[in-house]
Amino acid sequence: MTDEIKYSVEDDILYSEVRGKVDFKSMIEKAESLGKMTGLPKKLKILEDAWGAVPSFKISDIPFLVRNLESQLDQFDSVRHAVLHSDPTGTAFTLMADHFRKSHKYRIRVFSTITAAKEWLEQGTGNG
Prior knowledge:
Elements: E1 2-8, E2 13-22, H1 24-36, E3 43-55, H2 62-71, E4 78-84, H3 88-100, E5 106-111, H4 114-122
Parallel strand pairs: 2-3, 3-4, 4-5
Antiparallel strand pairs: 1-2
Helix pairs in contact: 1-2, 2-3
């Protein structure tokens, strides 16, 4: 898996571009790296372009992966995470991640266009 991450001050969005097979270990590492990032806004907006990504972890891993991600979000007041997918499995896994989330400050949605994803991110933070 390749993952390029950059924060745009102009857009106030953390951009992530993911390509290749995405395994369990890389998901854990990505969550931990997010938790260690500094200088990000307290109301974080993430736009993850996963058009070229294919999950290789199991559906049964999703609840653990979501809990692990949520445990890394202490530094943020809210996180809106928009994911772009073309792969049906990736789309389904993202929908399941939303189902298993427990934190009121973390929201995740899947989109097929960048325009729709950015519109949702701009709606605000929290439970919207």
